From TrEMBL:
Keywords: Methyltransferase, Transferase
Annotated GO MF terms: methyltransferase activity
Signal peptide extent: none
GO terms for biological process, alphabetical: methylation
Pfam assignment, any one: Methyltransf_23
Protein's name according to its UniProt entry: Methyltransferase family protein
Length: 268
């Protein structure tokens, strides 16, 4: 549901100019990059591929793609370019809900933790799929809150679910979209579909750091709209990165599919 105060991701909360935002995204990248790189490697990227990383953030995935496709071109697209180095890849300031690339522009399109935040995610994904060249791959990785819903730690569950509700209220985020994968890719007629789920733990981990820094940015919303007291928030912030804490955090569900019509035609 789109909340009454819906706004674009990063307009206020999670702006790349916010204190701690680079650290927060670094926690996310450290938690997820290994799995993302492994999944992308199984698609056997070729040196001449044209790649697009949507909502590139810090650009860690863009940089990896640029390294694997040195004779092609890698484009990092984001609505905020301040944290992108452009090291080996091009950066473009574009909004995936509004802007276009010509049909058939890319051999590989990747997006991680972007579409769930977009109220128009399904139509955006359909537009993005048209940017694929014949034989190209679409790889979408997004988060899902189901592991938090089953946490046995009441305070962690309460504050974490309030965080999910706070981003839903602000941006129209859907915290259950990814557990429906790979249906959104099948609907687009993609083939050679695959899917994989990863659930990192909070605690003294990159994910714990990401989650604590996320809570700190959302603190006024948690207090004003979701009944989280200052004491509860302070307890949560201490808990979520503490050495003995290991509750599951948000899942990442990845799905990929190809515009190929024939089976397993990755020899292009
Ligand atoms: C949670 S961060 C994920 C960053 C990176 N993909 C990663 O997983 O490390 C979401 C990113 O998507 C970008 N973003 C949000 N809405 C966008 C839009 N409409 N068009 C393009 N990028 C967008 C944000 O600026 C931010 O960099």
């Amino acid at each position: 549901m789109i909340g009454v105060d819906a706004e674009r991701y990063g307009d206020h909360v999670f702006s790349h100019g916010s204190a701690g935002e680079a650290d927060r995204l670094l926690g996310l990248a450290k938690a997820l990059d290994e799995g993302t790189f492994r999944r992308l490697a199984t698609l056997r990227p070729r040196a001449e591929w044209r790649c697009l990383d949507i909502g590139a953030g810090l650009g860690t995935v863009s940089e990896w793609l640029a390294g694997r496709c040195p004779r092609g071109r890698t484009v990092a697209m984001d609505i905020d370019l301040r944290l992108l180095s452009g090291n080996g890849y091009d950066v473009v300031d574009r909004d995936v809900t509004l802007d276009e690339f010509p049909p058939g522009s890319f051999d590989l399109i990747h997006a991680r933790w972007v579409f769930s935040h977009l109220p128009t995610r399904d139509t955006d994904l359909a537009r993005v799929a048209r940017w694929l060249a014949p034989g190209g791959w679409l790889v979408v990785e997004d988060f899902d809150q189901f592991p938090i819903e089953s946490s046995r730690h009441p305070l962690y569950r309460k504050v974490s679910l309030a965080m999910c509700a706070a981003v839903a209220r602000r941006f129209g985020t859907e915290g259950h979209w990814a557990s429906g994968f790979p249906a959104p890719l099948r609907t687009l007629g993609l083939t050679d579909i695959g899917t994989e789920t990863f659930v990192p733990s909070a605690g003294p981990t990159p994910m714990g750091r990401f989650w604590r820094l996320s809570a700190e940015q959302l603190a006024p919303d948690l207090r004003d709209h979701f009944g989280v007291t200052a004491t509860e928030l302070a307890e949560f912030v201490d808990l979520v990165e503490s050495p003995t804490f290991d509750e599951p955090c948000l899942a990442t569900v990845a799905a990929w599919g190809s515009l190929t019509t024939g089976p397993h035609d990755n020899g292009r």
